[in-house]
Amino acid sequence: MARQPDNKSADKSAANLKSDDSALIRELALLLDETSLTEIEIERAGLRVRVARNVTVSAAMPAGFQPAPVAAAAATAAAGADLAKHPGVVPSPMVGTAYWAPEPGAKPFIDVGSKVSAGQTLLIIEAMKTMNQIPSPRAGTVTQILVEDGQPVEFGEPLVIIE
């Protein structure tokens, strides 16, 4: 904040400055409360004052949400690297959120063991508010579904194994 000079007359002006500083800080804190701002910063005569309040943000989680265990996530990542090389893998053509069904509560497009034909919709990926159908590149039987419903996916990430 303010540097205090060595002489006595400057000490008195520094004390007044500190008093003015605390009044300014109180005024800024009141302004934060009145305006519902979370942070305010002012610079005046070489003095910069920033007043901020702690804000906690909470996100609502879906009713049945259970986070995946860390060990299972690490095993899934390792298995994902091996599955990417599988000859029957269907990779994600884009980044987005994968969904198994056309709408919540509807029957999924596919299940493990389902017989699919070339061009049949396997799942949809939402990207930029657009629902993109992901077609089967070949006919066969779905042996594994590698993503959860509502899971974010990356480009090239294995989605389904068809044999």
Give short descriptive properties of this protein.
alpha+beta, disordered N terminus
Explain what the structure shows.
With 163 residues, the chain is α+β, with helices and mostly antiparallel strands. 26% of the residues lie in helices and 29% in strands. Strands 3-10-8-5 form a 4-stranded antiparallel β-sheet, with no helix packed on it. The termini are far apart. Mean pLDDT is 77; it is low at 1-5 and 9-13.
Shape field = rod-shaped
Separate helix tally: 2
* Straight-line distance between termini: 70 Å
The number of distinct β-strands equals: 10
SSE-based structural type: alpha+beta
Pattern of helices and strands: HEEHEEEEEEEE
Please give the share of residues in helix: 25-40%
For the report, how would you describe the main beta sheet? Answer: 4 strands, antiparallel
Q: Which runs of at least 5 residues are low in confidence (pLDDT < 50)?
A: 1-5, 9-13
Computed CA radius of gyration, to the nearest angstrom: 29 Å
Please, what is the average pLDDT?
A: 77
List the helices and strands and how they pair.
Elements: H1 8-35, E1 39-44, E2 47-52, H2 70-83, E3 89-91, E4 96-99, E5 115-116, E6 121-127, E7 130-135, E8 140-145, E9 151-153, E10 158-162
Antiparallel strand pairs: 1-2, 3-10, 4-6, 4-9, 5-8, 6-7, 8-10
Question: Summed up, what is this model?
Answer:
With 163 residues, the protein is α+β, with helices and mostly antiparallel strands. The chain contains 2 helices and 10 strands, in the order H-E-E-H-E-E-E-E-E-E-E-E.
